[in-house]
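Re: Re: token formats

Sure, here are both.
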Amino acid sequence: MRGISTPAIAVARKAGIEFSVQSYEVAGEHGPEGWGVEAARALGLDPARVFKTLIVLLDDGRLAVTIIPVAARLRPKSAAAAFGAREAHLAAAHDAERATGYVLGGISPLGQRRKLSAALDASAFDFPTIHVSAGQRGLQIELSPHDLARLISATTASLTS
């Protein structure tokens, strides 16, 4: 996908990693399954290989990044433990957007405005490559989970139920 650039794509390019970008048509607001499941369906991908980026607020006031499969549910206690906190819950939409520089449905773990601590679900390493948002709705980036973890200094944890 030549000509398309987002901060996430710029980070991948600058790092010199192997990656690809896929685009798909976004149909207005997301349905009950969420943006990520719709992205997987639109691209004909196994939802287990497509990951969503969720920003959590920890009990000590820090924001943190969790990356989990799109069809899975975040387990708050596991997210908290991954960051050495007692509690975690989803951050307010405006806080997530302000911290990352991305809009909901297009939050990428790469190229965020603020450097936040990150945790990648262990299931990502079941695949040679995974897909995450490339920084805007309708755009996904495919890359190695090892490259993703390295680029964002992510810890690995079982984050889902």
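Second one below.
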Amino acid sequence: PASQSSEEVLLAAIAAGTTPDICSNIWPGAMDDFIATGGLVRLDKFPDYMEYISARVPADLLETFRAPDGHFYQIPWKTNPIMIVYNKNIFRDAGVDIIPRTYSEYIEVGRKVTRDLDGDGNLDVWLSHRDTKPIWWQRFFDYYTFYIAASGGKTLFDGSEIIFNNDASVKVFDFFQQIYKENLFAKTTFVGDAFILGKLATQIAGPWHVSHVEKFRPPGFEYGIFPVPVPDDYEGPVYTFGDFKNISIFGTTKYPEATYEFAKYLITAEADLKLLEYTLQIPIRKDLTTNPLFEEFFTENPNLIYFAEQAQYTRGMDGVSDLKEIFDAISQEYEACAIFNRRDPAVAVENAAKRAKVIMEWNRSR
């Protein structure tokens, strides 16, 4: 069926009974909808699922994919950890000799690199740029990425309870409010890739950006990668948004066992190497940086090792059916607070959480 997203297509196919046997493009944020329709095969009914998947996926990360009913309906497959790609030339020219770890360090770097180069009174280089339109999925790559980092790996929910009305969210809103207040992030719309054109010192991006930069960077363009900045008082490993796509088996299959065996093949080390080579996307596996099978690939693609190391410290989306509406609420408060400086960060976060609760209560009362 025609639709705007693969999730909508799959939901329509579930209703019509025309789903494929297997899909490797499952967004975790849609899992509640898929499970509620009875459209997916429960994978932990296969005797070796837990043993097989536990050998591949770190335990704390695996738990984030457990459904509210306690079972598993998806195989964690690949991730695009969001990190900071930076222009070494701009850093060097601005006298920046550190890799910023904290909010204050990142902002201080921003004050040095955000400059008017030709003296015409207009800025020519900025610290970074994000699409500021209040569209729900745009917040994945600013608020949500930085929230996961600031909270030590939390998501918006704990089970069915909203938990993002917390200090980590307030710090993230405050951080971006300061960023935009000081014009460190460009608000303009660029023609072409502003990072490759040398107009942005940093870019919030996933591993897909590496192949793009490698293909289009001009001679002498040097770049590197570092983790998402965290609050100044944060200690511990730095988590980030993982932008996962996973594998699920649909209940319409006539061959569940054979389909499951095929799914297991898709996550073998040999298949994961092909995934890396063809897509530059990161398989979710514990031994990614230690297995000799992948050594040559990372030697040839050294900048991707940063994303591979980050992969175990990633979080995805809560599989709740209200997620798009909740992110819409967050987006509107983020815009009022961070972009337009019209709302106190704590008030904005509280407003978003209150609206999220109303959304959930309303949807469940219908």
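The chain has two domains: 6-79+242-310, 83-240+321-365. The chain is about 40% helix and 10% strand.
- S.
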